[in-house]
Amino acid sequence: MKRFKTVECTAPMYGANIMADAIFYVSEQCVSCKHVNRLKWVFCKAFPNGIPQEILEGAFDHSKPWPDGHTPADNGIMFEKNPNLTTRQNRRKRNR
Length: 96
Known about the structure:
Blueprint: E1 6-14, E2 19-27, H1 28-31, H2 53-56, H3 88-94
Antiparallel strand pairs: 1-2
């Protein structure tokens, strides 16, 4: 089983007496997907109610369909690389 690396992400957390950033880890595949919600990293177009833990942790390759019968369903939406993202290496080359 392919295991994707995870990266540290932050998202604002608000509540009655809370105003802080939550820190959590998300698979590189999710972070580089064009469908992910960039403000709330655990949500995307495929999983509007929350990305399954197996995908978030990088244990499932979501360039393949989420298996039938698994809940929640991915609504036929799978990983697609966000063409607007650049790698750190490409940014360094561009800034030289």
